[in-house]
C-alpha cells in the first residue's frame, strides 16, 4: 500500500470497497470504529457480487488519518478492504443520476462517450480498441469491455478495485441507450469554422494514406518544419501507416469534402498522466478554427483515456499551436525547456482522484 497517498495534516475523502463477514452488526461496528477516529461517513451503498455483497463507503477523514489506518479498522472487525482510492463529489451523487448524466453527455457529444463510461464506472482509463477486444482476459475483473452498435469496443480498466456484476450490468444498459440513439465513440462529427466552412472530424485509417500524403504536399516548408522540427519537403511513404495508426495513440483527421486539410495525433507517453499532442493544418486553412476543433476533440479522447494533461513541443518562433490551444478553452500553461516551448493543456481527468491505493 502507498502510505504517501495523502499528506499528513490534510483532510481527505476516500472511497472504499469492503467485504465483511456475514454477521449481524458487522457494518455498524466498522462505521463505529471509523467514527471513533473522527471520520465522517458520507455515503454507503451495497453492491451484490457472487457469493455475497461488497459495501462501498465514502468517508471523509480528519487530518493525520492515513489509508492504512482505515484498512486496519476494517480488518479489526474481520473484514477485508478490496479497494481504496480518493473520492470526489461525483461519488456522492446517486447512481441513477450519475448514469443519466453520463448518457446525456455522450448523446450530446459522441466524442465524450469514453469519458462518460470512465465516469460511470469510476475507471482509471477507457480506450477505444479493435473489435473482438471482449475475447481477451478480464484481468481478474479489472478490465471491462463495452461494444457499441457499430462494433467499436471501449475497454475500461480500474486498478483500485475489480468491476462488480452490478457495474457491468449498468454499463451494458448504458451501451444499449447509446446504440438506440445510434451514437458511437468514433462517430465522425461536423464542425463549422469561424468563417462558416463545414468540416468533418474523424479517425484516420490506412485508406486515408493518399489523402494524407496530398495534405503534406500542399503544406509549405515552414508549416512542415513547425510540425516535424525537420527540413521535410515530402512525406516518406513508409511514415504513412505509422502516422495513421500509431501503436501508442490516436490520429484524428479534419476533412473538407474528400480532402484532408488537417491531421492531429495523441500519443501516450511513459507518464500515465500525460499524452503528447501534435497538429498539422494546411496553410490555407490556418487561423480558421480547424486546429482548435481538433485539439478540443483530442482533449475529450485524452480525458476518457485517463490522462490529465496533453503536452506539445513547439518552436519558440511558432505561435500557431499555442493560439489554437488557448482558443479551445482548455487551461494552457507554457514554459521554455531546452530551447523549445512546452505547451501543457489540462484536460481535467480524475479531478481530485489521485493515484489509487492498493490494499489487500
TrEMBL record:
SUPFAM superfamilies: ACT-like, Acyl-CoA N-acyltransferases (Nat). InterPro entries: ACT-like_dom_sf (IPR045865), ACT_dom (IPR002912), Acyl_CoA_acyltransferase (IPR016181), Bact_Acetyltransf (IPR050832), GNAT_dom (IPR000182). Keywords: Acyltransferase, Transferase. The keyword Cell inner membrane does not apply. Residues 199-348 form the N-acetyltransferase domain. One of its GO terms (molecular function) is acyltransferase activity, transferring groups other than amino-acyl groups. Residues 15-90 form the ACT domain. This is Acetyltransferase (GNAT) family protein. It comes from Actinokineospora iranica.
Amino acid at each position: 500500500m502507498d502510505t504517501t497517498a495523502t499528506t499528513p495534516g490534510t483532510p481527505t475523502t476516500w472511497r472504499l470497497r469492503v467485504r465483511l463477514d456475514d454477521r449481524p452488526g458487522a457494518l455498524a461496528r466498522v462505521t463505529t470504529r471509523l467514527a471513533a477516529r473522527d471520520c465522517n461517513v458520507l455515503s454507503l451503498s451495497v453492491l451484490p457480487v457472487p457469493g455475497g455483497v461488497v459495501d462501498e463507503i465514502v468517508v471523509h477523514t480528519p487530518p493525520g488519518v492515513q489509508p492504512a489506518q482505515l484498512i486496519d479498522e476494517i480488518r479489526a472487525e474481520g473484514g477485508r478492504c478490496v479497494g481504496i482510492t480518493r473520492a470526489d463529489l461525483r461519488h456522492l451523487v446517486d447512481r441513477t443520476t450519475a448514469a443519466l448524466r453520463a448518457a446525456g453527455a455522450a448523446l450530446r457529444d459522441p466524442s465524450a462517450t469514453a469519458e462518460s463510461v470512465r465516469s460511470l464506472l469510476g475507471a482509471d482509463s477507457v480506450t477505444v480498441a479493435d473489435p473482438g477486444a471482449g475475447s481477451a482476459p478480464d484481468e481478474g475483473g479489472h478490465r471491462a469491455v463495452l461494444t457499441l452498435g457499430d462494433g467499436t469496443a471501449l475497454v475500461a480498466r480500474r486498478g483500485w478495485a475489480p468491476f462488480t456484476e452490478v457495474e457491468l450490468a449498468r454499463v451494458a444498459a448504458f451501451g444499449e441507450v447509446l446504440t438506440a440513439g445510434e451514437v458511437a465513440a468514433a462517430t465522425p462529427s461536423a464542425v463549422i469554422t469561424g468563417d462558416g466552412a463545414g468540416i468533418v472530424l474523424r479517425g484516420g485509417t490506412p485508406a486515408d494514406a493518399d489523402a494524407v500524403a496530398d495534405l503534406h504536399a500542399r503544406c509549405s516548408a515552414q508549416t512542415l518544419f513547425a510540425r516535424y522540427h525537420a527540413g521535410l519537403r515530402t512525406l516518406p511513404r513508409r511514415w504513412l501507416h505509422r502516422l495513421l495508426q500509431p501503436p501508442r495513440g490516436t490520429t484524428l483527421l479534419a476533412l473538407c469534402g474528400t480532402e484532408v486539410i488537417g491531421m492531429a495525433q495523441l500519443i501516450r507517453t511513459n507518464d500515465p498522466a500525460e499524452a503528447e499532442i501534435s497538429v498539422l493544418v494546411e496553410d490555407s486553412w490556418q487561423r480558421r478554427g480547424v486546429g482548435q476543433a481538433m485539439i478540443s476533440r483530442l482533449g475529450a479522447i485524452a480525458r476518457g483515456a485517463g490522462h490529465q494533461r496533453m503536452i506539445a513541443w513547439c518552436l519558440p518562433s511558432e505561435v500557431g499551436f499555442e493560439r489554437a490551444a488557448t482558443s479551445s478553452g482548455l487551461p494552457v500553461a507554457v514554459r521554455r525547456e531546452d530551447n523549445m516551448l512546452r505547451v501543457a493543456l489540462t484536460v481535467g481527468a480524475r479531478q481530485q482522484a489521485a493515484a489509487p491505493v492498493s490494499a489487500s
